[in-house]
Amino acid sequence: MTETQSALTARRRWPTRAAKTLGAVAIVVGAIFVWASFSTGSSLYARALMWMQADTDDWQRFPSRTMSPSPQPLDFVEGSLPTGALTTISVEDGDGERVSDLNKFLEETGTTAFIVLQNDRILTERYFNGSSREATQTSFSVAKSFVSTLVGIAIDEGFIGGLDDPLIDYLPELAAEDDRMADITIRHLVSMSSGLRYVEAGMPWTDDSRTYYSPDLRQAALSVQVNEPPGTVWLYNNYNPLLLGMVLERATGMPVTEFLETRLWQPMGAEAAGSWSLDSEESGFEKMESGINGRAIDFLKLGRLFLNEGRNGDRQVVTAAWVAEATRRDTTTDPAAHYQYFWWVDEERDAYYAEGNHGQFIVVVPTQELVILRMGDRYGYDDWGSIFGQIADDLAG
Questions:
Q1: Cα distance between residue 260 and residue 292, in whole Å
Q2: What is the pTM of this model?
Q3: Cα–Cα separations (whole angstroms), residue 87 to 109, 129, 152, 347
Q4: Is beta strand 121-127 parallel, antiparallel or unpaired with respect to 77-78?
Q5: Which CATH class is domain 69-394?
Q6: How confident is the model at residue 177 (pLDDT cuts 50, 70, 90)?
Q7: Among 82, 184, 218, 367, which residue's beta carbon has the most beta carbons within 10 A?
Q8: What is the Cα–Cα distance from 321 to 343, expressed in whole angstroms?
Q9: Cβ(128)–Cβ(114) under 8 Å?
Q10: Could you tell me how far CA 62 lies from the centroid of its own chain?
């Protein structure tokens, strides 16, 4: 065979080889997807592959532990908006600032629930994008504000000695991995200054994915590494609430959902059942960094509880001292003025708020006796702080 004939034969064989290679790749990819579709109950990587980025339907994917409603649910009195209030809003877009109809803005930004409470009266309660009062909303990181409140209650009841208790008093196995764990306290965890390593970006091998999708979140939390001395640097870190969940489990001797149900969900007057998503059926550990599910009106009641300094009616659910300490703008015991005990602190206004992925917000403005709740299936807007500020100003008179 001549050189020209050999080259011609090779060119003829190339499409056949390429087709075989592509076929083999397709078989491998297909096998991976088949494996992943049957492994979401037990595999972090299968979940990351099949479910991708977190979304507001995830509460239907994870198993959960339920909470019963309060035997004495809190029913709000209806109030009335001042004339012309909460009808329009100023928004920034590519063409500059413009005035928008508030309902249109809320609908277009993916809002599912919008409630405003002032002076213990519901001024407005609006639902959008197919949602309703009875719809289940999910918290994402708003759950963290519930978690820190549970820590305060556990301290009140003597299950936890205090914020300055060493973490290893409750999780001694951590000390065997790294003796620097002995320096980390409960306060360091709840103020996001633990010094533990955390990497956010990327899927599916980063800490963001691991702390959200792992089917064994206890194991994930116990494998965390120390990165720097605690109390020196603020870093939003989802291992912190996971470790606090394990502390609460061991200190109280009950699942965290049960502690939430009996110490907070029912005492604050929840009108409907709720749930807390779990990592897996086998592990049965709450997704402490997220995953509390319930009605929007019941999420509002956490803000109302804090507005009333921890009291619901005649019951002091959590101490007023805890409410004040958990939401203050202070750096005497932690490094961040904008964040306290799993609550964000507004440094421009006398306000604080819980925030979750895709724009879940509970905003508390004590000077105006005001609570604003927004829940949605996406953020839909870059500066919700300005929106809540305008709402507060609109109601200031």
A1: 10
A2: 0.92
A3: 16, 18, 38, 27
A4: parallel
A5: alpha beta
A6: confident
A7: 184
A8: 15
A9: yes
A10: 15
